[in-house]
Amino acid sequence: MTTYVYDFSEGGRDMAGLLGGKGANLAEMARMGLPVPPGFTVTTEACRIFLATGQAPDGLDRQISEHLAALERAAGKRLGQVDDPLLLSVRSGARFSMPGMMETILDIGLNDLSVLGLAKTPERERFAWDSYRRLVQMFGSTVMGVDGSHFEAALAAVKQQHSLGDDTQLDTCDLIRIVETFKDLIQERTGEEFPQDPAEQLRRAVLAVFTSWNGERARLYRRREHIPDDLGTAVNIQTMVFGNLGADSGSGVAFTRDPATGRPGVYGDYLPNAQGEDVVAGIRNTVPLQDLAGLDPASFARLRGYMDRLEAHYRDLCDIEFTIERGTLWMLQTRVGKRTAQAAFAIASQLADEGLISEREALGRVGGEALARLMFPRFATTDSSEVIARGVPASPGAAVGAVVFDSAEAVRRAAAGEKVVLVRQETTPDDLPGMVAAQAVLTSRGGKTSHAAVVARGMGKVCVCGAEGIVVDTRHRRFSAGGVTVPEGTVVSVDGSEGVVRLGSVPLVDSDVMRYFEEGGVLPADGTARQPVRDVHRLMRQADAVRGLEVRANADTPEDAARARRFGAQGIGLCRTEHMFLGDRRPLVEAMILAHGDTEREAALAALLPLQRQDFTGILEAMDGLPVTVRLLDPPLHEFLPDRTELAVRLARGEALGTPADPHDSELLAAVTRMHEENPMLGLRGVRLGLVVPGLVAMQVRALAEAVVVRRHAGGDPRAEIMVPLVDAVEELHLVREEVDRVLAEVSLETGVDVTCPVGTMIELPRAALTAGRIAKEAAFFSFGTNDLTQTTWGFSRDDVEAAFFSAYLDKGVFPVSPFETIDREGVGRLVRIAVEEGRAARPDLKIGVCGEHGGDPASVHFFHGAGLDYVSCSPFRVPVARLEAGRAALEANGTDASA
User: Catalyzes what (predicted)?
Assistant: First the structure.
């Protein structure tokens, strides 16, 4: 019979797929001998069965009952007994951390009788009724579906009636009244009473946690973090321990290093006389964890010892939740902590220095997206006179945006193209859509371990928490700070590194890491580089030492080529020649298109030739000694002509006014009309254009060949390659190759310089991928154009569909991430593998790369490494990301952990 429930003593950290991250780590801490409240875990497999069938799997109730009975025997008390009852917490625990996205229910087992037993002594009365209040509120909203705002409003009304500042000031009588109000609310809203049977409470709580896996906020978070939808969540059932028993009790969250900067030390938050949910919810401002040393020295010392043990055991930054109950320390959770980009690089370097991990493992602890965040700009000024609010620097970076006060408004404005800053007293999981939409998050409550801080760090969003100087007025949609009233829509600048907010838009400057790459990736000899730059330099060197993939750049100008080289590019994988035909050269292209006969067309091409040669010369100079792959003209020719409607309107207006028509405009309209295509991206473009427009290929090849000669005469080492786009059939490539070879031979003969340029093709159509073995016989190299390959494989146009239905497709799980963002491994990826295998079988020395947008996407880089490509090519600014990920891909392939 399938086992659906495991005691903490039966698991370990290697069982995260079955027990979820939280359950596996609770079992690991128990195995290490740390003080973990006893409990057991219901597996993710049970959850998946429930989600698929709507029913708990056979035997689950019995297995839970058996483990509960063992728990009761060990505790010496039963769930629901009147005198000092056993109480339980029921918490979610997915394979990958999803902070606050699923449900938790505390104090399971309390009812109208057992609350009296829990409150049997006067000093425990308030605690007992506060615990009952929490259960009814959590159970009512999470399990029974009552809108949580009704409970919050009722609670706020009692506090307002007595002019109380927070929940801790409510006395026992207040709490008894609130419990009755909450139970009445449940009866009114659901038609049923709050259940008094503890067994029913437990059963329904477990199923509610299962159900929360498919809740809106959980699905949104998984989509944002690229977590698969089919994993399910485990459920952890654990003996309650109480941090709300008085001044000698409390709860907190600790990090073994600063998750914002990576600095070693004591970091975290502590809240005396509080449960753990109060800490992460941000409803009361915490004190720094260091203050625990004065409040409870013995517990603080034990906690520090456990923190050191856990970090050494996990060999990484650990995020730890704990509760102190009447001076006894309990460890409630540990996990590898989320961290900022800067902290990721810092911690990896530190752990390598301390000998906890190897240099290669350090590379596996960082990722390309974290590197990209370090390359973001920062504010140009730190003038403190401009500051209107200060808070906790919870997630670093610089962001400017218009203030909004709720998630819906953030989403609405962001969808309209406006940058926004979400301002809340504290965020809840329901604010996730607004946090995704916002550039930054600002809260008046909470600390580095609040919901806002943890989620923002995980998403790379700027965040300032606990800005106590601001008063958030959501009713009137404004906040006040430093004597200034800030209404919704006002632009503010949020500095997540310093924890400050400034009015208006503060200028941005490049980051130190960006400057490092702009200066060629070399540390200054005087040792003045800041620590984040040194950490990046160290791990980039490691990535370059182990990676097998070359990294090239997509660049069309000498300036872009030079920047790409400074950023570490090993050549140009895509030089688009169509960009050279725009601007003041457009009339020459028009002349070529409108030419009457060979003589006029040849004259137009002759005028374009020296301009193209000049462009190619500059790019070959910038990339001297490195390969430069030049793609022949790709888009339809009508893209170089004026808009058809605009021309027709201009001519019609002139006719209506009696103004003689411009003959050139009439000729252009006739040409545009003649060349009009219903679907031009599947029409006359690419290799097809070269085969039907005489002289076009010859002009481009001659310009490139003559540029090679110019660079050779200048003592350079030009390495030009010619790439033919949109090839469907080997015959197309054969015909173009004949013309290329003829022109190269002519230039060689005319100049006395042997000009040899490898000729290859883009694989960007399914037919090309499926006939790659034949095409390889005519090609020196392949380069996958994954943008067009994705469009033609899926059968949709990127420009049309992303706004039209991608959001719905992501919501419905048709694909987990846009196939234009990360390579579609099952479809497009399979075509890539087929083309690589068949191409290399026909031509073992075939060079293969990719030049689509996927070349700079971290997940796609790992796929291309596994598929056996020689290089990836991406925009210059993504070159460092691709280099880093290429190194991590090599480690992953060799069995070294490359998880970020």
Answer: pyruvate + phosphate + ATP = phosphoenolpyruvate + AMP + diphosphate + H(+)
- Torsion sign (Cα): 446, 447, 452, 455: negative
Look at residue 410 and tell me whether its pLDDT is greater than 80: yes
Percent of the chain with pLDDT over 90: 64
- Mean pLDDT is lowest, of 561-565, 568-572, 798-802, for 798-802
**Separation of alpha carbons 50 and 174, rounded Å:** 40
**Average pLDDT for the chain:** 90
- Which has the higher per-residue pLDDT, 322 or 895? 322
Residue 900: its pLDDT value, please? 41
Instruction: Give CA angle at 776 (617, 686), nearest 5°.
Output: 55
Q: Which of 239, 386, 252, 269 is nearest to 321 (CA)?
A: 252
Task: Report, as residue numbers or ranges, the catalytic residues.
Answer: 451, 851
Give backbone dihedrals phi and psi of 87, rounded to 5 degrees, phi first.
-120, 150
Rounded to an integer, what distance in angstroms lies between the CA atom of residue 51 and that of residue 850? Answer: 40
Question: How many Cα atoms are found within 13 Å in the side-chain-facing hemisphere of 883?
Answer: 29
Amino acid at 899: S
Residue 92 phi/psi, 5-degree rounding, is -75, 165
CA distance 278 to 215: 22
Structure tokens that stand for 599 in this block? 């003589």
Residues 581 and 608: their CA atoms lie apart, in Å, by: 8
The torsion region of residue 228 among left (phi > 0), alpha (psi -120 to 50) and beta comes to beta
Long-range CB pairs of 591-595, under 8 A, 24+ apart, other chains included: 592/693, 592/696, 593/637, 593/640, 593/641, 593/671, 593/675, 594/667, 594/668, 594/671
In this prediction, residue 592 has a pLDDT band, given cuts at 50, 70 and 90, of: confident
Indicate left, alpha or beta for 206 from its phi (over 0: left) and psi (-120 to 50: alpha). Answer: alpha
Q: Is the pLDDT of residue 896 over 70?
A: no
Burial class, 667, CB count within 10 angstroms (exposed 0-12 / middle 13-18 / buried 19+): middle
